[in-house]
Amino acid sequence: AQSVTQLGSHVSVSEGALVLLRCNYSSSVPPYLFWYVQYPNQGLQLLLKYTTGATLVKGINGFEAEFKKSETSFHLTKPSAHMSDAAEYFCAVRGRSDYKLSFGAGTTVTVRA
Amino acid sequence: SAVISQKPSRDICQRGTSLTIQCQVDSQVTMMFWYRQQPGQSLTLIATANQGSEATYESGFVIDKFPISRPNLTFSTLTVSNMSPEDSSIYLCSVERGLTEAFFGQGTRLTVV
Question: Is the minimum CB–CB distance between B99 and chain A shorter than 8 Å?
Answer without folding.
Answer: yes
